[in-house]
Amino acid sequence: MGKSVLYLCLQATSEGQASYAHVHEIVNGLKRRGWTVELFEPFYARTSTSPGALVRLVSFVWVQLLLSTKLNRYRIVYIRSHFAALPTSILCKLMRIPVVQEVNGPYEDLFIAWPWTRLFGRVFKWMIRFQLRWAAAVVTVTPQLKEWVIQETGQQSIYVIPNGANTQIFHPSASSRFSIEGSYAVFFGALAAWQGIETILMAINSPEWPQDVKLVIIGDGAERAIVEKAARNSTKVVYLGKITYQDVAGVVANSLVGLSPKNNRGGRSQTGLFPLKVFETLACGVPVIVTDFPGQADLVKEHNCGIVVSPDDPAALAEAVSFFYSNPSARHAMGQRGREVVEKEHSWDQRAGVTENMLIELMKGVGKR
């Protein structure tokens, strides 16, 4: 079986989403290092549809049935943590196949994305907690999330491997088929409740926001309706919807500044944030404006590659945009520092290398047992 890993992701990923980049960059990075990797995900992940709960449930069952027929061919199973992956976790335990669980957020992520799940919160928490306790190892994307997993489960075999950026796609010379005239700030990613979309839209109407600067938004999600409404009502708001990975890079590379104004909805930001958009923006040589939460704020402060503002503060966000508009030399210097630190420490290829080392260490431990 050699270096082989079976990857299960029950969260449907589509190009342009952070989850898509995370999954496929790690898979491709391992393949470049000689690993055999097979990815299992719901069938609707390759479509533009958003199925209902019943279709999702059927897909969860079906993809895990397919996976079960190939388990004996792989040394390790890697699961992007999901409550519905419980059957695979149990089967791997029975077959003595080590499982790695990758945790990208606390329980609250599920409850915010799907509010009805809060009615059965205890059940969903148990399903997730049970899998984390049984895992041979857990990967978290922030140190704070590691502490959360320890507190919730007592699990001690935990590795912190943050998000990263593809520095071949996201770079200062990236181009796009979208041509946007003038200066603009950019937000890209899932249009979710915790992203601070409402704060951004309030900021552009603030007197502190420069009159000649537009706001470009890329992505899709629950907040799409308010973004589309803002774009209809204001020439300063440009909504591009979902676009390709390469086009995102080109739009970002030509922007004034990138925005990551996350809020603390449901307390989810307390476990730390290393958003993909922050690394990808910096990789383009563009500075970032981030809210003051562990992870993203620490990165910006340590390397002086952007501005940290308070969450839910439209005026502060607008003032930061104005600073970059009025100070091109400072903007360029911050962007350059950001590009350098991402190339050196935060590329996806570097993350794949760390993941490989973790998997090899895990296989050695299994061999000794």
Describe the structure.
The chain has 369 residues and is of the alpha/beta class. Helix content is 45%, strand content 15%. It contains 14 helices and twelve strands. The chain has helices at residues 18-32, 53-68, 86-95, 108-113, 121-134, 143-153, 197-203, 224-233, 245-253, 276-283, 296-303, 314-326, 328-345, 348-368; strands at residues 4-9, 36-40, 76-80, 99-103, 137-140, 158-160, 183-188, 213-218, 237-241, 257-260, 288-291, 306-309. A six-stranded parallel β-sheet has the order 2-1-3-4-5-6, sandwiched between helices. It has a six-stranded parallel β-sheet with strand order 9-8-7-10-11-12, with helices on both faces. The radius of gyration is 21 Å and the shape is globular.
Task: Show the helix and strand layout.
Layout: E1 4-9, H1 18-32, E2 36-40, H2 53-68, E3 76-80, H3 86-95, E4 99-103, H4 108-113, H5 121-134, E5 137-140, H6 143-153, E6 158-160, E7 183-188, H7 197-203, E8 213-218, H8 224-233, E9 237-241, H9 245-253, E10 257-260, H10 276-283, E11 288-291, H11 296-303, E12 306-309, H12 314-326, H13 328-345, H14 348-368
Parallel strand pairs: 1-2, 1-3, 3-4, 4-5, 5-6, 7-8, 7-10, 8-9, 10-11, 11-12
Helix pairs in contact: 1-14, 3-5, 7-12, 10-13
Number of E strands? 12
Largest sheet: 6 strands, parallel
Secondary-structure element pattern, one letter each: EHEHEHEHHEHEEHEHEHEHEHEHHH
The average pLDDT value, as a whole number, equals 91
Structural class: alpha/beta
Number of helices: 14
Low-confidence stretches: none
Q: Give the CA-based shape.
A: globular
Distance between the termini: 18 Å
Write out the strand line-up for the largest beta sheet, numbering strands in chain order.
Answer: 2-1-3-4-5-6
Helix content range of the residues, please? 40-55%
Strand portion: 15-25%
- Report the C-alpha radius of gyration, rounded: 21 Å
